[in-house]
Amino acid sequence: xxxxxxxxxxxxxxxxxxxxxxxxxxxxxxxxxxxxxxxxxxxxxxxxxxxxxxxxxxxxxxxxxxxxxxxxxxxxxxxxxxxxxxxxxxxxxxxxxxxxxxxxxxxxxxxxxxxxxxxxxxxxxxxxxx
Length: 130
Fold this sequence. Notes:
By secondary structure, the chain is an alpha+beta fold. It has helices spanning 62-70, 101-113; strands at residues 6-15, 18-28, 48-56, 75-79, 83-84, 91-95, 119-125. It starts with 5 loop residues before the first strand and ends in a 5-residue tail after the last strand.
């Protein structure tokens, strides 16, 4: 994945009329389908391949989830906030963790045969599933 552009944000904060040194905050802009993992230090070890089939803002894409389940592909519709490596604030249809990238690719091919496209992301679940 190519390096994403980095932007600098400078903030000045006054506390009781006493200037505090400027804070420099760097962040990466993640634009790929609103679900690209940021290339910062937050995504280190412990990630596993998951296939991401849908991401929406208002509500989960239950039609895509049902289509995948009917094809025998185990997925869940969850908030992206549960995963490190996904943009926060979305509803995603995401696979269970897969043991390898090869198995993730094979699952994507099975989903494509059912009329659903997706992509593999290396993510880590923050909270244990219910």
